[in-house]
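Q: I have 415 residues here and want to know how they pack in 3D. Can you give me a structure?
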Amino acid sequence: MRWADLLVLLPAAPYQLAAFPFAALFHHLCASGHLSLTARYIFLLAGGCLLAGTAMGSYAVLLFIPAAGSVLVLLSISPARAHTWVFALQMSWQTLCHLGLSGQELDPQDTRPAIALSAIMLLTQKATSLALDIHEGLVPLQLGQGLLRRALPLCSYLLFFPALLGGPLCSFSRFRAQAESSGALPWPLRAAGQRCLCALALRGLRAGLAGGLAGRQGCAGLGCLPRVWAQALLLRLAYYLHWVLDEALLEAAGFGLEAGQGDLSVRDLWTLETTHRLAVFARTWNKSTSRWLRRLVFQRCPAQPLLATFAFSAWWHGLRPGQVFGFLCWAVMVEADYRIHAFLSARATSRGAKLLYRGTTWVFTQLIVAYILVAVETETFSTLCRLWTSCNSILPLAYGFALLLLLFAKKPKQN
């Protein structure tokens, strides 16, 4: 695999790697007592602005405008209405950016628009999470302070450089607590180094798989199933590599993750690749985003929360044809997964039947996940039509038909 091929999937990776020295410098200055709390917020904010300007160029303005707008809304609107206003602002701006940039003829080698869109999506996560915290009274605004002193922590949280281009969602309360105590935290070199070694292993594994697929030509009929699965595995490895680098950068800056709060641990990786439940895969995949979607949509939607969650996820990702089709297909597959497994597990009583049940559903889960990932990454409608009319659609259609048959069966409890 060429390095340029990796950058197509991970356009922000070089800038994340370049930020490691600044993350280590920030932690060293905090540990040595050279930075006050205000200076720490300024360092993190200035680093974020510098990283945005370097990685996005003039497109960084698209990030700064909604960040400033969200802070102004949070400081001027009552806590009861803050979430509604911030949500409307962020999603409206993000949608305009998606539509505007996708409608232009951009240089395929120019990664700046993709990086800007990714950062805006992460900003939406942080801004809406903060607004919900304020709305629910988890983060009281300090009204007695001046405007600049109240705005600085908010701006720093929305734009702090270790999580500007990636990384799991961190709550404002945890961000503030770690910014205040980062000088007392142990040197994070070991944790960051372990994640970097894991990233190297993932890159090597992906390079070997890409090299094995490079010499193979097209496929036909059922022979396309293994090829689509291998393509999806390449995509998953790219995402895993990205998440590990993001978390390593946070560790290097002293913003360690709580147990189970990151996007990818060894246990999560094992779960993603071995689970025979599509619903378990959906909950484990990109865990911080899954928790954010659950809090923002699933728990607040009175009707059809599962469908609404995946529909909103398609909107948040950009509403390209492949994304709309892929996420709606994912919603149907998860709903079918609940009912199919409730039906099969009750009938698989012997040891042999259980092994057959788990092995078969693991293969089905792998193939359906591959189908969804390839669909979501599809750029054009014609390519999506070719995927839809191929043999790869047999299993999703079978799951959809099984859902119709079991529709009137008792719905299992959902965790």
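Q: Anything worth noting?
A: The chain has 19 helices and no strands. The chain has two domains: 12-188, 265-409.
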